[in-house]
Amino acid sequence: MPELPEVETVRRGLQPALEGARLVAVEARRPDLRFPFPERFVERLTGRTITALGRRAKYLTMHADDGLVLICHLGMSGSFRVETAGTSEMPGEFHHQRSKNETHDHVVFHTELPTGERSRIIFNDPRRFGFMLFSEGVPDEHPMLAGLGVEPTGNALDGTLLASLLEGRRSPLKAALLDQRLIAGLGNIYVSEALWRAGLSPLREAGTIAKASKKARQQSDRLAGAIRTVIADAIAAGGSSLRDHVRTDGSLGYFQHSFAVYDREGEPCPTPGCGGHVERIVQSGRSTFYCRACQR
DNA sequence: CCGATTACCTGCACGC
DNA sequence: TGCGTGCAGGTAATCG
Asked: Which nt is closest to the CA of A77, judged by C1'?
């Protein structure tokens, strides 16, 4: 389920075990994910210390002490989990989840912090739409990241910028918001959620909220605000449920979040006094959930 | 420039 | 119990 908030949640969850840690061993248990692993994947990572863990859109970046950057994408079904053991002085057993299905554990990073604390950071991905690539220089210049649009976090995405991005676009709003070249990090869930919060129909021609009229300006302001808050709220929820998650089962990633319209076909629209109900339609081959009564 | 379709891959919920 | 169908949060290529 990884859209930007989930990837950010994963990044924060991995930080304690990975930032400042040395990769004492790396395992790639198959030759590829979505793409083949880069040349000498294991050799180039083994022995490196990870100095920083970053994120751009839905991409995680692991920065090594020799300048190498590992770019990771979780695809549709990728997740990380952390299993922590004792220190090298006091080894102890790794916590093992008997319930965990290890069939799709494709990559394992064996880490050790300066404190001697050791962990296993395990990448699991049943569908293998995820991938890992190397970047030698600035990751933002890597072909995979170079074309990405504005982050919906922070204040950069305001109504004016959003209007300029949508100006002249004939595509439906839904498609425009999913376009990573415009806004980077929104996915199928949060696009539906943001459009509902903004009271805008996913079917609307994108360019129509970028006109010079007062109404269009209000709508682009409202949509930009809705995008930023839905993302910020999801990150906040992920962060708070994550602490629990780590303690109980060591897994990182997907928090259960309750959505207003996503996957709620047929349910009453949660807008107070609306009286409409949530519909599911298909746009560019993917489900969109919205309320035609309050989203225009 | 646009949208629709297909592909990649496994798991799961569903109806029969 | 099994089998077929459709669907799933990702990106990218192709075709009209």
From this structure: C9
**CA A127 vs CA A52, A180, A190, A284: distances in Å:** 28, 22, 22, 21
Beta bridge partners of A36: A32
CA–C1' A132–C16 (A): 34
- A191: nt with nearest C1' to CA: C9
Q: Is residue A210 located within the same domain as residue A238?
A: yes
Cβ of A215 near strand C (under 7 Å)? The reply is: no
Distance in Å, residue A28 CA to nucleotide B13 C1':
32
A286 is known as an active-site residue: yes
Q: How far apart are CA A233 and CA A228, in angstroms?
A: 9
Tokens of A181: 């070249």
Q: Which domain holds residue A31?
A: 4-141
CB A109 within 8 A of CB A23: yes
Q: Is the pLDDT of residue A287 over 80?
A: yes
Task: Look up the pTM and report it.
Answer: 0.93
Q: What is the pLDDT of residue A183?
A: 95
Number of domains in chain A: 2
**What's the confidence (pLDDT) of residue A75?**
93
On whether both A38 and A103 belong to a single domain, the answer is yes
Q: Of A110, A141, A172, which one is at a domain's C-terminal end?
A: A141
Question: For nucleic chain B, which protein residues have CB less than 7 Å from any of its atoms?
Answer: A 34, 77, 101, 103-104, 126-129, 168-172, 175, 283-285
Residue pLDDT, tens place only, A134-182? 999 899 999 899 999 999 998 999 999 999 999 999 999 999 999 999 9
- Which residues make beta-bridge pairs with A120? A83, A110
Asked whether residue A146 is domain-assigned, the answer is no
Residues A167 and A259 in one domain: yes
What are the tens digits of pLDDT across the range A92-107? Answer: 666 655 456 789 999 9
Q: What is the CATH number of the domain that holds A118?
A: 3.20.190.10
A3 is catalytic: yes
- Nearest nucleotide, CA A128 to C1': B9
Given a cut of 60, is residue A254 above it in pLDDT? no
Average pLDDT over residues A176-190: 94
Question: Residue A179 CB: number of other CB atoms within 10 A?
Answer: 16
